[in-house]
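_Full entry_
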Amino acid sequence: MTDPASAEVDTDRPNIARVYDYLLGGSHNFAADRAFAEEFLAKWPDARDTMRANRAFLAHAVRFLAGLRDALAPGSYVVVTHGTNDGQVTRVTDAHELYARNAAPFRLRSHAEILRFFDGLDLVEPGLVRIPLWRPDSPADATQHPERIAGYAGVGRKR
């Protein structure tokens, strides 16, 4: 008997969640996802490092906010990571075009555009920075070339 959920999974087309899983070293992906990821990496070799930095930031931000949550009203903080092509226009834009042809829409934004997400909020130090530079646990946690990470991260606090 076929599992109804598996009947809805199209393993012949890449799925961005499974591609992300593959880029992070996971095992919940299929040949189409791996092939797409390798084509994506050929256009943007630093993509895997960006995905890893993004995952690490989200874990770090959750730990940061967990220490504060008892004193806050729900929704008091906003955590944002967002892709950018600042400083890497050709490579990241080529990868973005490949992504757009094969997956859901995704929009890259400049630092200034992402910063507008924080309008009306106070940015928590160090502000809106390249993902690995947002409060690394240790200097070793920040990559040697943060400018290669095509994304910014920040936490804003409601005034």
